[in-house]
Amino acid sequence: MKLTTIALTLVGIALLAGCGPSGDSTAKTEGGSNPAPAGGKLTIAVIPKGTTHTYWQSVKAGAEEAGKEFNAEIIFKGPVKEDDRAGQIQVVQQFTADKVSGIVLAPLDNNALVGPVKAATAESIPVTIIDSSLTGEAGKDFTSYVATDNKAAGMLGGERLAKLLGEKGKVVLLRYGVGSASTTDREAGFLEAIAKYPGIEVISKDEYAGATQSEAQTKAMQMVDVLKGADGVFTPNESSSRGMLSALGQMGLAGKIKFVGFDMATELLDALKANKIDALVAQNPKKMGYEGVKAVIQKIKGETVPGVIDTGATVIDRENVETPDIQKLIKGE
Questions:
Q1: Domains and CATH numbers, the chain
Q2: 144-154 pLDDT, tens digit each
Q3: How far apart are CA 184 and CA 271, in angstroms?
Q4: In angstroms, rounded to a whole number, what is the distance separating the alpha carbons of residues 142 and 134?
């Protein structure tokens, strides 16, 4: 049985960071945060990059679990698509105006969300960054950074694809989107790992899938000639992986090209079991949501909060997918 797991160490990363229901305005505490109204719960806004991917529903589940444990109301709201920067900024601004107790944010863009986060913290609303980094310093510009070590996770994908190919062949990287720090780091990690193998040639690395499965599928279909000449492919997130999977199926290449994807949507896990995907680099989104909410509540209570919290990454393949540990990860237990 193979279970390749990283307990990743994140260094002080330059970090990345949208309208929600109104919350009651409350007085600011001397410690620098907005407490719950007298006799009420803390109100924590959790703002994902988007709301369509299975991944974000797992983040929501973890956030709600923490909300129950720490007696906080969780408001989960974000843009529909993961390329709506203006929409996410608007959500952050609205929650700031509503004087929520704290914000947990997965920033769509590492620079575009800096201003809105700074404005929230200026109103004594602590902000924890999850999933994707924001330009700034954890513990100073925002409370904490809770995420996968994305570069190391990308390296896991590269090492696994190299092994699947016997350390030789032609590979394709289909990137996700410009400005997304998490996937940019995964892509960099993948390329760094592949560069260690002189027998492997990267024949395409500058194409972007876009924010949705449909966009990714369209882009992959446009790469049909490149993919027909490839031995392996890597995709850095759920939507790019699902789009590539659909395109390879349409091309008649599913199962013929070694394919390492990212995240663990049901469709991707089914494809893994059906030999259409060879491995998936999986995160722990439920833990990310839980730890993000926990960190912001600890800050509100004046407790010490780690600057960086690593939630880990694991490679899932056909040999370990049914093992107890992997099943717990898949089910969010």
A1: 10-147+284-311 (3.40.50.2300), 150-282 (3.40.50.2300)
A2: 999 999 999 99
A3: 25
A4: 9
